[in-house]
Amino acid sequence: MQEVLNAHANHGSVFRTGAANGGWGPIMSYRAHLALVATLITGTAWGQEVTATSTTIARTWRQDTPGMGQSTYTPATEYLGVDATRLGLDGLSMHLYGWGASDLADASAIGGKQAGNLTYGYLQYDFGRANAQVKAGRFTVNQGVGNEQVDGITARTDLRFGFLVSGFAGKPVIFKNLSNNHQDDNAYEHDFTYGGRLAWREAKVGELGVSYLQDGSQPAYDLGLPGTVVDYTRRELGLDVHLTPISRLDVAGRTVFDVNDRPQAAPGADNSHVAEHNYKVTGKLSDQVALTGTFVERNFFAYFAGTTLPSLFNQNEQGMFRASGASLTWAATSKLQVLGDLRRTDRGNQGDTTRIGADLRYALAERHIQAGGGYHQVNGFTVASVDTAVPTYSLSHREFRAWIMAERGAASASLDTILLHYDDANNPSLNHHATQSAVMGSVGYQARAEVKVSGDLSYEDTPLYQRQVAALLRVECRFGLAGKGGK
Amino acid sequence: MFRKFAFLSIALGLGLLVACAIVSPEPSFAPVHPQALEQGRPTCSDCHGTDRVKSTQKSFASFDHTPEFIANHKLPANQDPATCAACHAPSFCADCHGGKTAMLPSTKLGNRPDREMPHRTDYLIQHRIDGKVDPTSCFECHGRANNEKCTACHK
Questions:
Q1: Which of A130, A405, A420, B2 could form a disulfide with A414 if both were Cys (CB 3.0 to 4.6 A apart)?
Q2: Between chains, do B143 and A313 touch, taking CB under 8 Å as contact?
Q3: Which of A14, A203, A280 sits opposite B52 (nearest CB)?
Q4: Does A468 contact B122 at a Cβ distance shorter than 8 Å?
Q5: Rounded-to-integer distance, Cα A249 and Cα A322, Å
Q6: If you average pLDDT over residues A406-433, what whole number do you get?
Q7: Is B143 on the interface with A (CB under 8 A)?
Q8: pLDDT digit string (tens) for A377-396?
Q9: pLDDT for A274
């Protein structure tokens, strides 16, 4: 954890939340976060069941980029997680997870020589009834339209007559909007977020929910920043549904509305407030066969609302994305599973793409062997290039993958291979290199019940970096009593 | 001042009373699955048949870890996080949904090819194709977070 904290101290961006640049703001913020993490860690002393997990990963690879020479990278990364339950009270628990990384040889990696992140750190109280729960600290919200990393508080409970309610409020951990500025320079745009979800459940019906999310206390275009004509403030309303009238039928999906008023949208833009329809229907035809149909429709203008990367997810881009697909899952035997899938996507006047293929999965549980593989063909549309020598090129390609993993006693091993073949080598991204392939092998040894050591060796042949060999050493430690884990 | 305090106290008390009255009396979902499960993806309906998960009112079959469930686990995880938490620690989700990650999930878990990790092998080339086919697929994870590396090119 010290490494995480050091990384934060050096990197700064994580802990400088909401304060103006300079002055005591960032320092106080750092101290406040340090105190929060220290409190959480010392709180584990009260826990009757404490699980600590540590994964240390050291990697090295040499990158050969044509025209840019060779670079060697040797980053070391430490992931640390702590889960402590029954902190004095049966329902009180603490959960902490973060990482810190340092490049031991070269500081040229994007993100700097040192980096770190507190992924989550929160206290949680679970009530004995109504699935009622309260969390406070840094956590990831997952409620209706809200999928956010937040420093704040969240709560949920079941109500009588099948209703349930949940809500959250706090400060978004990441809210940077204008790419070239530090996120604290734009704190006013996404300085606060809140939302909630109300749902209703009924046996032989399923669940219906309505949710709302808002972030940003002031719209960006009110601030007089030159060139800012789009209001990035997010106000989203979501309707979600999950119907299981019979055990063999499952209907799920959601519709999201961008309910923000955007009077200054670009002239001619599609101003529809429907951001997304995303639905699927699964029918179990027998105990072995299930058929799934999917439909997705997204309107760029509404869907990209509130992005922190407007240069890439441009709200003013005209367009709509639609996709429909079907998949058939067949449990051929208790050990073999086959999945066939077909998906057709439509990007309006840009073109259509069809992806079709199959995956196999084989598990021999008693011998601790699993294997899988798949083949997919993607018939993509043709895009225009800025290169006058190659005015157009196709996106069509084929994907192949095969893998196997096995355990015997304390030893384990795995092998994973991937091959991508691009139909049009004139694609300027490919450097006239029509294939991309990778082979990764891993061997591991469970030295003790709580310690596992493994090493990976990979070989890649890519159009961008050509041939590249990478090695990785992984030490996983797990100490504690709690029954569940990341398996 | 006293009147205001009294009014607020009564309102708060009544609010708590109403809140307690409308909260479900049903016991919470088991925090931990009572039995250890076999290695690999569980098929809940193998043991639970056509029963329903009492706290969610959905069939156990809805949570069978089929390939289709793995590919579309967003909604069940969103609606029924307590069901996930019976077997998965929070760090399981953070393997992919970490917000800011140190390395690709497929690199971190290179010894687990059985897990469906996004962006295997060098993804720089392939993302130029996937992004053209469907830019909204990138947005779900990189539209509002975890996009520092995107800005190196997409300024």
A1: A405
A2: yes
A3: A203
A4: yes
A5: 24
A6: 91
A7: yes
A8: 999 988 887 777 778 889 99
A9: 92
